[in-house]
Amino acid sequence: MSVRIDDTDRKILVELQRDASQSLDEIAARVGSSKTPVWNRIRKLKGAGVIGQQTVLLDAEALGFEATFFVLIRTSEHEADWQHKFLKALRDRPEVQEAHRLAGDIDYILKVRVKNARAYDEFYQALISEVRVHNVTALLSMEEIKSTTMLPLKALIES
């Protein structure tokens, strides 16, 4: 379903990205509208799939997940069966927060969040026991400088 998104919709989306727990009254006041039209627009955006799952952001370090690894994977396997098995292995592992198939020398990059290096090694050993990979390089993030789930919608709003 295709939906046309105007500046008011974008302003609503900016507010929801900033804080989805706001009341309709708060969102309406911030975007210069009233409650009912804002609610109708949010319903329309949800129905069109523009707004997906709503969740909360947890502090990984406060919960003991102190290590983030970026895992670069090269494979010599490109058959559909291998790819299906590999993707299933990634989806079955909650440590994998993101997985991307890349163009270039590296085939996949994973963002893996674990408690520590030992937990990463357990993840690694389990993964390579399920699927063959040609080369794996793990890079430990020393410091998270920026992380966001927010899209740069303000740049699309006409002034």
Automatic annotation (TrEMBL):
Leader sequence segment: none
Top-level division of the source organism's lineage: Bacteria
One cellular-component annotation, GO: cytosol
Keyword check for NADP: no
Any GO molecular function: sequence-specific DNA binding
Listed InterPro entries: ArsR-like_HTH (IPR011991), AsnC-type_HTH_dom (IPR000485), Dimeric_a/b-barrel (IPR011008), Tscrpt_reg_AsnC-like (IPR019888), Tscrpt_reg_AsnC/Lrp_C (IPR019887), Tscrpt_reg_HTH_AsnC-type_CS (IPR019885), WH-like_DNA-bd_sf (IPR036388), WH_DNA-bd_sf (IPR036390)
Xref: SUPFAM superfamilies: Dimeric alpha+beta barrel (SSF54909), Winged helix' DNA-binding domain (SSF46785)
One Pfam family this sequence matches: HTH_AsnC-type
CDD domains: HTH_ARSR (cd00090)
Domain named HTH asnC-type: residues: 5-66
Alphabetical keyword list: DNA-binding, Transcription, Transcription regulation
GO BP, sorted A to Z: regulation of DNA-templated transcription; response to amino acid
PANTHER family given in the database record: DNA-BINDING TRANSCRIPTIONAL ACTIVATOR DECR, LEUCINE-RESPONSIVE REGULATORY PROTEIN
Protein name listed in UniProt: Leucine-responsive regulatory protein
Organism encoding this protein: Ruegeria atlantica
Classification lineage: Bacteria, Pseudomonadati, Pseudomonadota, Alphaproteobacteria, Rhodobacterales
